[in-house]
Amino acid sequence: xxxxxxxxxxxxxxxxxxxxxxxxxxxxxxxxxxxxxxxxxxxxxxxxxxxxxxxxxxxxxxxxxxxxxxxxxxxxxxxxxxxxxxxxxxxxxx
Length: 94
Prior knowledge:
Structural class: mainly beta
Low-confidence stretches: none
Number of strands: 6
Order of helices and strands: EEHEEEE
Number of helices: 1
Radius of gyration: 14 Å
Distance between the termini: 34 Å
Largest sheet: 4 strands, mixed
Helix content: under 10%
């Protein structure tokens, strides 16, 4: 499948009507800082569609992208080690 259009819809925390509108969803899940957001940029051929960082834990909500107006690609927060805003690190138990 060729991706012709990709659009950031919004970030979601908790429940949201966007996630229950009947449009199929594909979720990217994995450990913190393994390249989930980078894969979205690569697949869509858009350098800055999904924000990336060298610091683990940048994605803190479910980021929803509409792909070809046919399905949603969900960029989920990583699990494992993440650096939080106040400077303290936290380790999430698997």
